[in-house]
Write a structure and sequence with these properties.
heterodimer; A: alpha/beta; Rossmann fold; nine-stranded mixed β-sheet; two-stranded antiparallel ribbon; 5 helices; B: 729 residues; alpha+beta; seven-stranded mixed β-sheet
Amino acid sequence: MKSAVIVFPGSNCDRDVQVALRASLGAEPLMAWHGDAALPAVDLIVVPGGFSYGDYLRAGAMAAHSPVMREVAARAAAGVPVLGICNGFQVLCEAGLLPGALMRNAGLKFICRDVHLRVDNARTIFTSGYAAGQVVRMPVAHADGNYNADAATLDALEGEGRVAFRYCAADGAVTEAANPNGSARNIAGILNAAGNVLGMMPHPERLAEAALGGTDGRAMFDAVCAALAA
Amino acid sequence: MTEITAEIVREHGLTDEEYRRVLRIMGRAPNLVELGIFSVMWSEHCSYKSSKVWLKKLPTTAPWVICGPGENAGVIDIGDGQAAIFKMESHNHPSFIEPYQGAATGVGGILRDVFTMGARPVANMNALRFGHPDDPRTRHLVSGVVAGIGGYGNCVGVPTVGGEVNFHHGYDGNILVNAMTVGIADADRIFYSAAAGIGNAVVYVGSKTGRDGIHGATMASAEFDDDSAEKRPTVQVGDPFTEKLLIEACLELMGTDAVIAIQDMGAAGLTSSSVEMSSKGGVGIELDMDAVPVREDGMTPYEIMLSESQERMLFVLRPGREDIARAIFEKWELDFAVIGRITDTQHLVLRSGGTTVCDIPVPPLVAEAPEYDRPRGAPPAPAPMPSPVPALDTPAGEALLTLMGSPDLCSKRWVWEQYDHMVMADTVQRPGGDAAVVRVHGTNKALAIATDCTPRYCFADPRQGGRQAVAEAWRNLTAVGATPLAVTDNMNFGNPERPEIMGQFAGCIEGMAEACIALDCPVVSGNVSLYNETNGKAILPTPAIGAVGVLADYRRMATLAFKAAGEAIVLVGATNGHLGQSLWLREVAGLEAGPPPPVDLAAERANGDLIRALIGDGAVTACHDLSDGGLLVAVAEMALAGGIGAAVEIPDGTGPTAWLFGEDQGRYLITAPDAADILARAAAAGAPAAVIGRTEAGATLTVPNGLSISLDTLRDTHEGWLPRYMAAP
């Protein structure tokens, strides 16, 4: 199985994802520079976190128009799994691969801390390592993670099982207090209609190793790598 | 051409005597460009003219020191062919005037000092001092500085893993923003600034040069008055995105054989970088002002040379390697321009529009920079300790809650949650402990990093305060199990032309030197920030120390959280109940008085070496150093971190307040299922040690005389103050 991590100017979690993929995959992912026109055939594409183009204009807005994103969109349409984390989620929304937008945090400040997430849909290639309703812990680190979309879109996401993760309390209760950034309906991660594109604000790669304080993120990389290797 | 009048000389911050020296060196009157260059090179900020004579007294060598002070940052050997490169630097004056950009560019500047030497930055720290919470400007300054540090560090993708935040009236008009960066490089791939190779290209990379920050170094070399806000135009504006590209491009270029020398453009911009490179290399340098990438038309050579625009670097490249370098910088979409050549003249020559606009002999510009042994006087004495000490009968529980919710001791979570402290996925001990621990990528080795200083001690007794700053940093590294290797210092003081300030400076240096020697921890880099005063009122003397140590295996590190109920709590170190200058005295009794606790360096060393050995052997389950607030505060912090309660006993015949809240130095709390072995090893090592209590299953902290506080109450108090303060209108 081959994976690729897209690297934009200003990406800064590219290495962290590379390390996590290497550990779960047992193989080196391809680090794909945004300016390289052609993307080799791969089984998984990760758009990592960071500040692509310095978040200028809007977070993810400029990267969404980078040449490599046309290729990412084509692969996504062809069914290749695409995972966008943090800035990667912002890029996927800006590129139209996922609905909605990520606005400035309700508290107006950057937030870096572990949060609890409830797994709402465990029947995807990314989340099959979790049980539905399971509570997992991962860090967030963002200033613009306040997910929003119009009510019809939110209803559709919920109705079609396209909410992958919600911010919740340690006991799984989806409460306002557990929502770190004001996201609509506590949404932390969403899927496209086909279910092969996941965007999420929390960083699974940052808690993918016991030394870093937890391994809940590892289950995601293990699951997607196992599914694609099968 | 502008005629140089006495008024112009004065505006450039040069004294009559210094200007006479310029005339002698030049053999003629300088033109305005030349005067500007002398002015910034001889500013306090760039020349260290008031401090140099004292800095020489600090120990700077050890077998593991690869490069001490004098380069962009200090370099130490951390084994396995790797080096740690680090430095701390102030951005005090700009941060007071424009907190967001001042703090942000402070982070950018210190990052460049470290990656200029070939290191990938792996951790940022910061030591912040603000005015009293009641000062009307404090909230705005805290908000802006924290956002600025986060805004820059988060974007470049280097974790900000720790630091310290204090509040005191002494900083009401002069806050301190000291930023530290630690990087890792291969020990045989360190890059220096000495230019070489007559005819080699001098290459400018990074951002374009604008009109921002002109005279920033000069501003940082004068005190503030009521019109300081008018200095806003001298503050630079940072672009962390460009810095991130610059890091990647520079490290990529350093992976080739193209680089002979590199120097970042920090304070005094193109002037100091070109002078530094030619001076260190014993060569001349000739620059074409018309080739410098500029943001706007019509910039004069004076403006180009004195601009402090951020995110710029100067390289000297090996012949024939320009194309390799250009390709790398073009890939990263950064400006790349050959702006000059190395010459054999030892002169700095600038050309603009085909004419020579500056010609200065570099050796005397550097070697004959003024150096002053300024008069020293007795530092201001602290208020005497009253006898009897008031408020001694305040119940321990009440005092503990007051302290845990005080501005200096409360949780700083509100601050560090705005910093990305996890990016790079090697932060194995996050903020909130005694030291941050960052794994060396791909290995089990780790660096421990701490910043420390207790300015109220330094004010009351500069020598003991200087000792204590180094000792506490060393102690914090020890408390996680690391072997301390070296420190960087950031000397923040008032106006050195006042003898009492020089007395503080000299006293602190003396104490620091004693501690560095006793603890085998040399100073490898540093920065001096003087003139931190407004209308004649100086800050507390603040020699901030940043310390770096190494852990052979991070899996053996200690953390401060209690791990299990029913364990013995052992106090290591002697307790005399020293309340002078303690936070108890300030926060509970309402007094800042008395001498600070003395630092017994031999005991410090013995106790610390014991602790490190115990941690290394896996003999302790938790460890925390005792500092601000004393013993009971340390117990409370360990209990909160672990969510496990404790019962503490007070030995017979001891005054409970002094015992619980005294700030005697050289002490640690450790826990273990069984203390017998630890007590025996401590006795053998000559370190005082005693069991002072046990961890308990209930989420409560109890001390005799009936005190019992739930951890929930403690946590609310501890976590509550800063968010509440910042949320107030």
